[in-house]
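Weekly sync, protein design subgroup
Attendees: M.S., D.O., the rotation student, P.L. (late)

Item 1: inverse folding check
M.S. brought a backbone from last month's batch and wanted to see whether the design step gives back something sensible before we order anything. D.O. pointed out we never logged the input encoding, so this time it goes straight into the notes. C-alpha cells as presented (93 positions):
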C-alpha cells in the first residue's frame, strides 16, 4: 500500500495539473497557493448538519486554494482527488 505522503503528494500534483490555465474569477490572476497543509490535522472541513440536530452528521474534507493576487478562495473536495491519486499510484482500492 502507498504511504500517505505519496498519496498527498499525488493529490497536490493532480490539483496543480487540473488548475493549468485556470484563472481567478475575480481578478483573472493565474497563480494559487494551497492553504491546507496536506497531512496536517488542521484542515478545512465542510460540516453537514441535520436541521433539527446541532451535532455534525458528516464532514467533507476540503483543499482550499487562494489566489495569490486578490485572495479569492477556491475549494475542492479531497475525496475525488484522493481516489484519483490512489488509482494513479496503482494502489488497489
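Designed sequence read out in the meeting:
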Amino acid at each position: 500500500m502507498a504511504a500517505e505522503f505519496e498519496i498527498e503528494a499525488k493529490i497536490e500534483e493532480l490539483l496543480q495539473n487540473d488548475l493549468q490555465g485556470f484563472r481567478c474569477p475575480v481578478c483573472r490572476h493565474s497563480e494559487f497557493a494551497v492553504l491546507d497543509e496536506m497531512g496536517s490535522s488542521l484542515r478545512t472541513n465542510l460540516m453537514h448538519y441535520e436541521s433539527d440536530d446541532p451535532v455534525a452528521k458528516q464532514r467533507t474534507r476540503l483543499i482550499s486554494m487562494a489566489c495569490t493576487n486578490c485572495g479569492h478562495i477556491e475549494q475542492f473536495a479531497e475525496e475525488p482527488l484522493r481516489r484519483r491519486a490512489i488509482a494513479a499510484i496503482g494502489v488497489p482500492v
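Discussion: The mean pLDDT is 86. Residues 4-89 form one domain.
Action: P.L. to compare against the previous round before Friday.
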